[in-house]
Amino acid sequence: MMLTPPFNLHHPTTVDEACALAARLLEEGRPFDWVAGGTDLLPNYKWHIETKPDVISLARIEGLDAIETDRIGCMVRLHDLAISEVAHPLIATAASKVASSLIRRSATLGGNLCLDTRCFWFNQSEDWRRSIDWCHKADCGSGAECRVIPNQNTLCVATYQGDLAPSLLVLNATVELIGPSGARTLPLRDFFQLDGITRNVLKPGEFLLMVHLPEDAAKRRGAYRKLRVRESWDFPEAGVAASWVPGDVSSLRLASTGLESIPGVHDALVADHGDWTLPEGRRELAEAVKGAVKPVNNTALPPRYRKAMVSVLAARAMGDLMEEV
Amino acid sequence: MGVGMVGEAHVPMLPAPPSVVWRATVNGRLEELLAPSNAILLDVLRDRVGQLGVKRGCDLGTCGCCAVLIDGEPRLSCMTLAGDVAGAAITTVEGLADGHHLAPIQACFAEHGGSQCGFCTPGFLVTAQALLDRTTNPSASEIAEAIEGNLCRCTGYQPIIDSIKAAAEVLRGEAERAEPRTMPHADPHPAGQDEPILPPGHAR
Fold first, then answer.
1. Which pTM value belongs to this model?
2. Across the strands, what pairs with A73?
Protein backbone atom coordinates (compact mmCIF):
# COMPACT_ATOMS: atom_id res chain seq x y z
CA MET A 1 0.00 0.00 0.00
CA MET A 2 1.21 3.44 -0.88
CA LEU A 3 0.34 6.35 1.32
CA THR A 4 -1.35 9.24 -0.35
CA PRO A 5 0.64 12.36 0.47
CA PRO A 6 -1.21 14.99 2.47
CA PHE A 7 -2.83 17.66 0.33
CA ASN A 8 -5.88 19.87 0.49
CA LEU A 9 -8.36 19.14 -2.24
CA HIS A 10 -10.32 22.11 -3.55
CA HIS A 11 -13.54 21.84 -5.52
CA PRO A 12 -14.39 25.05 -7.37
CA THR A 13 -17.73 24.93 -9.16
CA THR A 14 -17.11 27.52 -11.86
CA VAL A 15 -14.13 28.41 -14.06
CA ASP A 16 -14.02 31.90 -12.50
CA GLU A 17 -13.93 30.43 -9.03
CA ALA A 18 -11.12 28.09 -10.08
CA CYS A 19 -9.09 30.98 -11.47
CA ALA A 20 -9.69 33.08 -8.35
CA LEU A 21 -8.63 30.16 -6.17
CA ALA A 22 -5.49 29.66 -8.27
CA ALA A 23 -4.70 33.38 -8.00
CA ARG A 24 -5.10 33.25 -4.22
CA LEU A 25 -2.85 30.20 -3.86
CA LEU A 26 -0.23 31.81 -6.12
CA GLU A 27 -0.37 34.98 -4.05
CA GLU A 28 0.12 33.02 -0.85
CA GLY A 29 3.03 31.19 -2.42
CA ARG A 30 1.38 27.80 -2.04
CA PRO A 31 2.29 25.46 -4.89
CA PHE A 32 -0.61 23.46 -6.31
CA ASP A 33 -1.61 21.06 -9.05
CA TRP A 34 -4.75 20.78 -11.14
CA VAL A 35 -6.43 17.40 -11.23
CA ALA A 36 -8.94 16.30 -13.85
CA GLY A 37 -9.45 12.53 -14.03
CA GLY A 38 -6.54 11.80 -11.71
CA THR A 39 -5.25 8.79 -13.64
CA ASP A 40 -1.87 10.44 -14.22
CA LEU A 41 -1.56 12.64 -11.15
CA LEU A 42 -2.69 10.23 -8.44
CA PRO A 43 -0.26 7.38 -9.24
CA ASN A 44 2.54 9.95 -9.29
CA TYR A 45 1.35 11.37 -5.98
CA LYS A 46 1.23 7.89 -4.44
CA TRP A 47 4.85 7.51 -5.49
CA HIS A 48 5.48 10.90 -3.88
CA ILE A 49 6.57 12.42 -7.16
CA GLU A 50 6.40 16.20 -7.10
CA THR A 51 3.55 16.38 -4.63
CA LYS A 52 2.05 19.75 -3.82
CA PRO A 53 0.25 20.87 -0.64
CA ASP A 54 -2.86 21.92 -2.58
CA VAL A 55 -4.73 20.29 -5.44
CA ILE A 56 -7.58 21.90 -7.33
CA SER A 57 -10.05 19.45 -8.84
CA LEU A 58 -11.98 20.41 -11.97
CA ALA A 59 -14.52 17.63 -11.41
CA ARG A 60 -17.33 19.83 -10.10
CA ILE A 61 -17.14 22.53 -12.75
CA GLU A 62 -20.19 22.26 -14.94
CA GLY A 63 -20.03 22.43 -18.71
CA LEU A 64 -16.44 21.37 -19.28
CA ASP A 65 -17.48 17.98 -20.63
CA ALA A 66 -19.27 19.08 -23.80
CA ILE A 67 -18.35 17.44 -27.11
CA GLU A 68 -19.09 19.42 -30.27
CA THR A 69 -17.73 19.06 -33.77
CA ASP A 70 -15.58 22.18 -33.45
CA ARG A 71 -14.66 22.08 -29.78
CA ILE A 72 -14.19 19.61 -26.97
CA GLY A 73 -14.10 20.50 -23.28
CA CYS A 74 -11.11 19.57 -21.15
CA MET A 75 -13.13 17.35 -18.80
CA VAL A 76 -14.54 15.12 -21.54
CA ARG A 77 -13.65 11.62 -20.48
CA LEU A 78 -11.81 9.48 -23.00
CA HIS A 79 -14.50 6.80 -22.86
CA ASP A 80 -17.14 9.35 -23.88
CA LEU A 81 -14.84 10.65 -26.58
CA ALA A 82 -14.22 7.13 -27.90
CA ILE A 83 -17.94 6.34 -28.29
CA SER A 84 -18.93 9.84 -29.40
CA GLU A 85 -20.61 10.22 -32.77
CA VAL A 86 -20.03 13.96 -32.75
CA ALA A 87 -16.26 13.97 -32.25
CA HIS A 88 -13.98 13.58 -35.26
CA PRO A 89 -13.49 9.85 -35.99
CA LEU A 90 -9.71 10.19 -35.69
CA ILE A 91 -10.00 11.66 -32.18
CA ALA A 92 -12.49 8.96 -31.20
CA THR A 93 -10.17 6.24 -32.53
CA ALA A 94 -7.15 7.66 -30.73
CA ALA A 95 -9.14 7.99 -27.50
CA SER A 96 -10.29 4.37 -27.77
CA LYS A 97 -6.65 3.24 -27.88
CA VAL A 98 -5.63 4.93 -24.64
CA ALA A 99 -4.81 2.62 -21.71
CA SER A 100 -7.67 0.30 -20.68
CA SER A 101 -11.43 0.66 -20.76
CA LEU A 102 -11.46 1.17 -16.98
CA ILE A 103 -8.91 3.97 -17.10
CA ARG A 104 -10.70 5.64 -20.01
CA ARG A 105 -13.75 6.02 -17.78
CA SER A 106 -11.80 8.40 -15.55
CA ALA A 107 -9.13 9.88 -17.82
CA THR A 108 -9.91 13.15 -19.56
CA LEU A 109 -8.90 14.95 -22.76
CA GLY A 110 -7.27 17.84 -20.89
CA GLY A 111 -5.39 15.49 -18.63
CA ASN A 112 -4.14 13.48 -21.58
CA LEU A 113 -2.81 16.57 -23.35
CA CYS A 114 -1.14 17.82 -20.16
CA LEU A 115 0.17 14.34 -19.33
CA ASP A 116 3.35 14.44 -17.31
CA THR A 117 6.38 13.17 -19.18
CA ARG A 118 7.51 9.70 -18.22
CA CYS A 119 10.89 8.09 -17.69
CA PHE A 120 12.19 4.82 -16.33
CA TRP A 121 14.18 6.73 -13.71
CA PHE A 122 11.34 9.06 -12.79
CA ASN A 123 8.15 6.99 -12.46
CA GLN A 124 9.37 4.99 -9.48
CA SER A 125 8.65 4.95 -5.78
CA GLU A 126 10.27 7.46 -3.50
CA ASP A 127 12.58 4.87 -1.91
CA TRP A 128 13.67 3.67 -5.32
CA ARG A 129 14.46 7.21 -6.44
CA ARG A 130 16.25 7.99 -3.20
CA SER A 131 18.44 4.91 -3.70
CA ILE A 132 19.73 6.35 -6.99
CA ASP A 133 20.12 9.81 -5.43
CA TRP A 134 17.09 11.10 -7.33
CA CYS A 135 16.88 12.09 -10.96
CA HIS A 136 17.15 15.39 -12.76
CA LYS A 137 13.39 15.67 -13.33
CA ALA A 138 11.94 14.41 -10.09
CA ASP A 139 14.08 16.35 -7.69
CA CYS A 140 15.79 18.94 -9.80
CA GLY A 141 16.48 21.17 -6.81
CA SER A 142 18.82 18.53 -5.41
CA GLY A 143 21.17 18.94 -8.35
CA ALA A 144 20.79 15.29 -9.30
CA GLU A 145 22.31 14.09 -12.55
CA CYS A 146 20.17 12.89 -15.44
CA ARG A 147 20.41 9.10 -15.50
CA VAL A 148 19.45 8.71 -19.15
CA ILE A 149 22.11 10.90 -20.74
CA PRO A 150 24.98 11.44 -18.29
CA ASN A 151 26.71 14.79 -18.15
CA GLN A 152 23.87 16.72 -19.68
CA ASN A 153 21.55 18.46 -17.30
CA THR A 154 20.34 21.21 -19.56
CA LEU A 155 17.39 19.28 -20.97
CA CYS A 156 15.15 16.70 -19.36
CA VAL A 157 14.56 13.88 -21.85
CA ALA A 158 11.57 12.23 -20.15
CA THR A 159 9.14 10.98 -22.79
CA TYR A 160 5.73 12.43 -23.59
CA GLN A 161 3.39 9.47 -24.03
CA GLY A 162 0.01 11.07 -24.64
CA ASP A 163 -2.08 9.46 -27.37
CA LEU A 164 -4.38 12.29 -28.33
CA ALA A 165 -1.84 14.99 -29.08
CA PRO A 166 -0.66 13.64 -32.48
CA SER A 167 -4.24 13.14 -33.68
CA LEU A 168 -5.21 16.65 -32.64
CA LEU A 169 -2.00 18.02 -34.19
CA VAL A 170 -2.76 16.55 -37.61
CA LEU A 171 -6.21 18.14 -37.38
CA ASN A 172 -4.56 21.51 -36.62
CA ALA A 173 -6.32 21.89 -33.29
CA THR A 174 -5.94 24.96 -31.12
CA VAL A 175 -6.12 25.00 -27.33
CA GLU A 176 -7.75 27.54 -25.07
CA LEU A 177 -5.90 28.13 -21.83
CA ILE A 178 -7.33 30.01 -18.90
CA GLY A 179 -5.85 31.30 -15.70
CA PRO A 180 -5.84 34.23 -13.28
CA SER A 181 -4.45 36.50 -16.01
CA GLY A 182 -7.20 35.65 -18.46
CA ALA A 183 -7.75 33.33 -21.39
CA ARG A 184 -5.57 32.82 -24.43
CA THR A 185 -5.79 30.58 -27.46
CA LEU A 186 -2.84 29.13 -29.32
CA PRO A 187 -2.19 26.34 -31.82
CA LEU A 188 -1.64 22.99 -30.14
CA ARG A 189 1.76 22.71 -31.85
CA ASP A 190 2.91 25.77 -29.88
CA PHE A 191 1.49 24.38 -26.63
CA PHE A 192 4.30 21.89 -26.06
CA GLN A 193 7.76 23.03 -25.03
CA LEU A 194 10.83 20.91 -25.61
CA ASP A 195 11.81 19.96 -22.09
CA GLY A 196 10.63 17.06 -19.99
CA ILE A 197 10.26 19.30 -16.96
CA THR A 198 8.61 22.40 -18.45
CA ARG A 199 6.58 20.27 -20.90
CA ASN A 200 4.20 22.96 -22.05
CA VAL A 201 3.58 26.70 -22.04
CA LEU A 202 1.04 26.68 -19.20
CA LYS A 203 1.92 29.50 -16.82
CA PRO A 204 1.50 29.02 -13.08
CA GLY A 205 -2.21 28.94 -12.31
CA GLU A 206 -3.28 28.25 -15.90
CA PHE A 207 -5.12 25.19 -17.09
CA LEU A 208 -6.28 23.85 -20.46
CA LEU A 209 -9.95 24.69 -20.81
CA MET A 210 -10.97 23.69 -24.32
CA VAL A 211 -9.70 22.19 -27.54
CA HIS A 212 -10.91 23.91 -30.72
CA LEU A 213 -10.89 22.31 -34.15
CA PRO A 214 -10.73 24.31 -37.38
CA GLU A 215 -13.56 24.07 -39.90
CA ASP A 216 -11.56 22.00 -42.37
CA ALA A 217 -10.95 19.32 -39.73
CA ALA A 218 -14.29 17.74 -40.56
CA LYS A 219 -13.15 17.22 -44.17
CA ARG A 220 -10.02 15.42 -43.08
CA ARG A 221 -9.70 11.66 -42.76
CA GLY A 222 -7.14 10.35 -40.34
CA ALA A 223 -5.41 7.30 -38.96
CA TYR A 224 -3.49 6.61 -35.78
CA ARG A 225 -1.08 3.74 -35.22
CA LYS A 226 0.71 3.02 -31.97
CA LEU A 227 3.20 0.61 -30.52
CA ARG A 228 2.84 -0.66 -26.97
CA VAL A 229 3.96 -3.62 -24.94
CA ARG A 230 0.53 -4.83 -23.85
CA GLU A 231 -2.26 -3.82 -26.20
CA SER A 232 -4.75 -3.54 -23.37
CA TRP A 233 -3.01 -1.18 -21.04
CA ASP A 234 0.38 0.33 -21.75
CA PHE A 235 1.45 3.82 -22.65
CA PRO A 236 2.50 4.22 -26.30
CA GLU A 237 6.14 3.43 -26.93
CA ALA A 238 5.69 5.16 -30.27
CA GLY A 239 2.68 6.51 -32.10
CA VAL A 240 2.07 8.12 -35.47
CA ALA A 241 -1.05 9.97 -36.60
CA ALA A 242 -1.73 10.97 -40.18
CA SER A 243 -4.53 12.93 -41.82
CA TRP A 244 -5.39 14.30 -45.23
CA VAL A 245 -8.24 15.76 -47.20
CA PRO A 246 -9.10 12.76 -49.40
CA GLY A 247 -7.88 13.33 -52.93
CA ASP A 248 -5.52 16.19 -52.09
CA VAL A 249 -2.06 14.63 -51.91
CA SER A 250 -0.38 17.80 -50.63
CA SER A 251 -2.75 18.02 -47.63
CA LEU A 252 -1.02 15.22 -45.73
CA ARG A 253 -0.01 15.93 -42.13
CA LEU A 254 2.00 13.61 -39.90
CA ALA A 255 2.63 13.77 -36.15
CA SER A 256 4.27 11.39 -33.72
CA THR A 257 4.21 10.75 -29.98
CA GLY A 258 5.95 8.63 -27.37
CA LEU A 259 9.39 9.36 -28.78
CA GLU A 260 10.57 12.65 -27.30
CA SER A 261 9.64 15.07 -24.55
CA ILE A 262 7.00 16.57 -26.80
CA PRO A 263 4.95 15.21 -29.69
CA GLY A 264 6.57 15.73 -33.08
CA VAL A 265 5.04 17.52 -36.07
CA HIS A 266 6.48 16.40 -39.41
CA ASP A 267 4.97 18.88 -41.87
CA ALA A 268 8.35 19.95 -43.23
CA LEU A 269 9.23 16.35 -44.14
CA VAL A 270 5.92 15.90 -45.89
CA ALA A 271 6.54 19.04 -47.95
CA ASP A 272 10.02 17.78 -48.91
CA HIS A 273 8.79 14.44 -50.15
CA GLY A 274 6.92 13.51 -53.23
CA ASP A 275 3.84 11.44 -53.84
CA TRP A 276 3.13 9.35 -50.78
CA THR A 277 0.12 7.67 -52.32
CA LEU A 278 2.44 5.09 -53.86
CA PRO A 279 3.95 2.46 -51.58
CA GLU A 280 7.54 3.52 -52.42
CA GLY A 281 6.76 7.15 -51.63
CA ARG A 282 5.21 6.12 -48.34
CA ARG A 283 8.24 4.06 -47.42
CA GLU A 284 10.56 6.95 -48.24
CA LEU A 285 8.55 9.42 -46.18
CA ALA A 286 8.25 6.95 -43.32
CA GLU A 287 12.04 6.53 -43.32
CA ALA A 288 12.40 10.30 -43.18
CA VAL A 289 10.10 10.45 -40.14
CA LYS A 290 12.18 7.74 -38.52
CA GLY A 291 15.28 9.84 -39.13
CA ALA A 292 13.69 12.90 -37.57
CA VAL A 293 12.85 11.41 -34.16
CA LYS A 294 15.32 10.83 -31.37
CA PRO A 295 14.00 8.40 -28.77
CA VAL A 296 16.21 7.80 -25.73
CA ASN A 297 16.56 4.78 -23.48
CA ASN A 298 13.97 5.60 -20.81
CA THR A 299 10.87 3.54 -21.55
CA ALA A 300 10.07 -0.17 -21.68
CA LEU A 301 11.33 -0.81 -25.21
CA PRO A 302 14.84 0.02 -26.49
CA PRO A 303 15.15 3.23 -28.53
CA ARG A 304 16.48 1.44 -31.62
CA TYR A 305 13.39 -0.71 -31.80
CA ARG A 306 11.06 2.22 -31.19
CA LYS A 307 12.83 4.18 -33.90
CA ALA A 308 12.63 1.28 -36.33
CA MET A 309 8.94 0.92 -35.58
CA VAL A 310 8.26 4.60 -36.28
CA SER A 311 8.79 4.03 -40.00
CA VAL A 312 6.52 0.98 -39.87
CA LEU A 313 3.81 2.89 -38.01
CA ALA A 314 4.08 5.93 -40.29
CA ALA A 315 3.86 3.79 -43.43
CA ARG A 316 0.89 1.88 -42.03
CA ALA A 317 -0.89 5.05 -40.93
CA MET A 318 -0.51 6.49 -44.44
CA GLY A 319 -1.61 3.14 -45.86
CA ASP A 320 -4.73 3.37 -43.71
CA LEU A 321 -5.48 6.73 -45.29
CA MET A 322 -5.25 5.23 -48.76
CA GLU A 323 -7.47 2.32 -47.85
CA GLU A 324 -10.27 4.57 -46.71
CA VAL A 325 -10.60 6.23 -50.10
CA MET B 1 17.47 8.14 6.55
CA GLY B 2 20.96 9.53 6.21
CA VAL B 3 21.64 13.07 7.30
CA GLY B 4 22.36 15.44 4.48
CA MET B 5 21.18 13.02 1.84
CA VAL B 6 20.68 14.60 -1.54
CA GLY B 7 17.23 16.00 -1.96
CA GLU B 8 16.09 15.37 1.57
CA ALA B 9 14.91 18.93 1.88
CA HIS B 10 12.43 18.27 -0.90
CA VAL B 11 10.24 15.95 1.11
CA PRO B 12 8.10 18.44 2.97
CA MET B 13 6.46 17.55 6.25
CA LEU B 14 2.89 18.67 5.92
CA PRO B 15 0.11 18.48 8.46
CA ALA B 16 -2.67 16.02 7.72
CA PRO B 17 -5.33 17.59 5.54
CA PRO B 18 -8.57 18.61 7.22
CA SER B 19 -11.35 16.07 7.42
CA VAL B 20 -14.51 16.84 5.55
CA VAL B 21 -17.93 15.23 5.64
CA TRP B 22 -18.25 12.71 2.81
CA ARG B 23 -21.66 11.49 1.77
CA ALA B 24 -22.46 8.88 -0.82
CA THR B 25 -24.81 5.99 -1.36
CA VAL B 26 -22.81 2.79 -1.07
CA ASN B 27 -24.67 -0.36 -2.07
CA GLY B 28 -27.98 1.38 -1.58
CA ARG B 29 -27.23 2.71 1.88
CA LEU B 30 -26.45 6.34 2.55
CA GLU B 31 -23.03 6.66 4.15
CA GLU B 32 -22.04 9.83 5.90
CA LEU B 33 -18.58 9.96 7.39
CA LEU B 34 -15.55 12.10 8.00
CA ALA B 35 -12.71 11.59 5.56
CA PRO B 36 -9.56 13.62 4.89
CA SER B 37 -9.97 15.94 1.95
CA ASN B 38 -7.26 14.07 0.02
CA ALA B 39 -8.87 10.66 0.61
CA ILE B 40 -8.81 8.13 -2.20
CA LEU B 41 -12.13 6.36 -2.76
CA LEU B 42 -10.54 2.93 -2.28
CA ASP B 43 -9.33 3.86 1.21
CA VAL B 44 -12.70 5.31 2.17
CA LEU B 45 -14.60 2.25 0.95
CA ARG B 46 -12.29 -0.23 2.69
CA ASP B 47 -11.31 1.51 5.89
CA ARG B 48 -14.29 3.74 6.63
CA VAL B 49 -17.29 2.09 5.00
CA GLY B 50 -15.90 -1.42 5.61
CA GLN B 51 -16.53 -2.83 2.14
CA LEU B 52 -13.59 -5.21 2.03
CA GLY B 53 -14.70 -6.76 -1.25
CA VAL B 54 -12.98 -3.82 -2.92
CA LYS B 55 -9.43 -5.08 -3.26
CA ARG B 56 -6.22 -3.11 -3.18
CA GLY B 57 -4.06 -4.67 -5.87
CA CYS B 58 -1.48 -2.51 -7.58
CA ASP B 59 -2.92 0.79 -6.26
CA LEU B 60 -1.85 2.34 -9.59
CA GLY B 61 -4.64 1.46 -11.99
CA THR B 62 -2.96 -1.52 -13.64
CA CYS B 63 -4.83 -4.48 -12.16
CA GLY B 64 -8.49 -3.48 -11.93
CA CYS B 65 -9.05 -5.27 -8.59
CA CYS B 66 -10.44 -2.09 -7.05
CA ALA B 67 -13.13 -1.50 -9.70
CA VAL B 68 -16.47 -0.26 -8.39
CA LEU B 69 -19.57 1.05 -10.11
CA ILE B 70 -19.92 4.81 -9.72
CA ASP B 71 -23.36 5.88 -10.94
CA GLY B 72 -23.41 2.63 -12.92
CA GLU B 73 -20.02 3.12 -14.57
CA PRO B 74 -17.07 0.88 -13.78
CA ARG B 75 -14.24 3.02 -12.43
CA LEU B 76 -11.01 2.34 -10.58
CA SER B 77 -11.46 3.37 -6.96
CA CYS B 78 -7.68 3.54 -6.41
CA MET B 79 -7.46 6.40 -8.89
CA THR B 80 -10.59 8.25 -7.86
CA LEU B 81 -10.60 11.03 -5.31
CA ALA B 82 -13.38 10.42 -2.82
CA GLY B 83 -14.20 14.12 -2.89
CA ASP B 84 -14.80 14.01 -6.65
CA VAL B 85 -17.54 11.40 -6.36
CA ALA B 86 -19.27 12.61 -3.20
CA GLY B 87 -23.00 12.23 -3.62
CA ALA B 88 -22.69 9.46 -6.20
CA ALA B 89 -24.27 6.01 -6.03
CA ILE B 90 -21.45 3.52 -5.55
CA THR B 91 -21.83 -0.22 -5.94
CA THR B 92 -19.10 -2.57 -4.78
CA VAL B 93 -19.02 -6.32 -5.31
CA GLU B 94 -20.98 -6.68 -2.07
CA GLY B 95 -23.86 -4.85 -3.71
CA LEU B 96 -24.25 -7.21 -6.66
CA ALA B 97 -26.01 -10.05 -4.84
CA ASP B 98 -29.61 -9.84 -3.78
CA GLY B 99 -29.28 -10.77 -0.12
CA HIS B 100 -28.35 -14.46 0.02
CA HIS B 101 -28.93 -14.93 -3.67
CA LEU B 102 -25.98 -14.42 -5.95
CA ALA B 103 -26.34 -12.29 -9.04
CA PRO B 104 -26.25 -14.32 -12.28
CA ILE B 105 -22.72 -13.13 -13.00
CA GLN B 106 -21.55 -14.33 -9.58
CA ALA B 107 -23.26 -17.70 -9.93
CA CYS B 108 -21.73 -18.15 -13.37
CA PHE B 109 -18.25 -17.28 -12.13
CA ALA B 110 -18.65 -20.02 -9.54
CA GLU B 111 -20.07 -22.47 -12.06
CA HIS B 112 -17.56 -21.88 -14.86
CA GLY B 113 -14.38 -21.50 -12.84
CA GLY B 114 -14.10 -17.77 -13.42
CA SER B 115 -12.54 -17.41 -10.02
CA GLN B 116 -9.51 -19.30 -8.76
CA CYS B 117 -7.46 -17.51 -6.14
CA GLY B 118 -10.23 -14.94 -6.06
CA PHE B 119 -8.27 -11.77 -5.53
CA CYS B 120 -9.13 -10.25 -8.91
CA THR B 121 -12.69 -11.58 -8.85
CA PRO B 122 -14.43 -8.54 -7.28
CA GLY B 123 -12.99 -6.32 -10.00
CA PHE B 124 -13.98 -8.72 -12.77
CA LEU B 125 -17.49 -9.13 -11.36
CA VAL B 126 -18.01 -5.39 -11.21
CA THR B 127 -16.74 -4.70 -14.74
CA ALA B 128 -18.65 -7.70 -16.10
CA GLN B 129 -21.83 -6.51 -14.38
CA ALA B 130 -21.36 -3.06 -15.92
CA LEU B 131 -21.06 -4.68 -19.34
CA LEU B 132 -24.17 -6.81 -18.79
CA ASP B 133 -26.08 -3.76 -17.57
CA ARG B 134 -25.32 -2.19 -20.94
CA THR B 135 -26.04 -5.19 -23.10
CA THR B 136 -27.19 -8.72 -22.44
CA ASN B 137 -25.78 -9.84 -25.76
CA PRO B 138 -22.13 -8.80 -25.68
CA SER B 139 -19.86 -9.80 -28.55
CA ALA B 140 -16.49 -11.40 -27.95
CA SER B 141 -14.74 -8.11 -28.65
CA GLU B 142 -17.05 -6.21 -26.31
CA ILE B 143 -16.23 -8.67 -23.53
CA ALA B 144 -12.53 -8.38 -24.25
CA GLU B 145 -12.71 -4.60 -24.20
CA ALA B 146 -14.72 -4.55 -20.98
CA ILE B 147 -12.22 -6.66 -19.06
CA GLU B 148 -9.03 -5.33 -20.65
CA GLY B 149 -8.29 -3.30 -17.54
CA ASN B 150 -8.55 -6.30 -15.20
CA LEU B 151 -5.62 -8.62 -14.64
CA CYS B 152 -6.00 -12.28 -13.65
CA ARG B 153 -2.94 -14.44 -13.11
CA CYS B 154 -4.80 -17.71 -12.48
CA THR B 155 -7.50 -18.48 -14.99
CA GLY B 156 -5.96 -17.48 -18.29
CA TYR B 157 -9.12 -15.40 -18.85
CA GLN B 158 -11.02 -17.99 -20.90
CA PRO B 159 -13.10 -19.25 -17.93
CA ILE B 160 -13.89 -15.62 -17.11
CA ILE B 161 -15.07 -14.96 -20.67
CA ASP B 162 -17.13 -18.19 -20.51
CA SER B 163 -18.67 -17.02 -17.23
CA ILE B 164 -19.66 -13.68 -18.70
CA LYS B 165 -21.16 -15.36 -21.79
CA ALA B 166 -23.09 -17.76 -19.54
CA ALA B 167 -24.39 -14.91 -17.38
CA ALA B 168 -25.49 -13.07 -20.52
CA GLU B 169 -27.42 -16.18 -21.58
CA VAL B 170 -29.12 -16.33 -18.19
CA LEU B 171 -30.02 -12.66 -18.42
CA ARG B 172 -31.41 -13.15 -21.93
CA GLY B 173 -33.55 -15.96 -20.55
CA GLU B 174 -31.91 -18.54 -22.82
CA ALA B 175 -30.44 -20.59 -19.99
CA GLU B 176 -31.52 -21.62 -16.55
CA ARG B 177 -29.58 -19.93 -13.82
CA ALA B 178 -27.26 -22.40 -12.14
CA GLU B 179 -28.49 -23.78 -8.85
CA PRO B 180 -25.97 -23.10 -6.09
CA ARG B 181 -23.95 -26.19 -5.15
CA THR B 182 -24.25 -25.29 -1.48
CA MET B 183 -27.11 -23.78 0.45
CA PRO B 184 -27.11 -20.00 0.27
CA HIS B 185 -25.69 -18.92 3.58
CA ALA B 186 -25.86 -15.82 5.63
CA ASP B 187 -24.34 -12.52 4.59
CA PRO B 188 -20.61 -12.90 5.19
CA HIS B 189 -20.47 -9.31 6.34
CA PRO B 190 -23.40 -9.03 8.71
CA ALA B 191 -22.02 -6.15 10.73
CA GLY B 192 -23.60 -2.79 10.15
CA GLN B 193 -22.14 0.64 9.80
CA ASP B 194 -21.27 0.86 13.48
CA GLU B 195 -19.11 -2.22 13.46
CA PRO B 196 -17.34 -2.59 10.15
CA ILE B 197 -15.12 -5.60 9.75
CA LEU B 198 -11.65 -4.20 9.47
CA PRO B 199 -8.45 -5.93 8.48
CA PRO B 200 -5.85 -6.67 11.16
CA GLY B 201 -4.14 -3.50 12.22
CA HIS B 202 -7.13 -1.35 11.44
CA ALA B 203 -9.31 -2.53 14.30
CA ARG B 204 -10.18 0.14 16.77
1. 0.91
2. A210
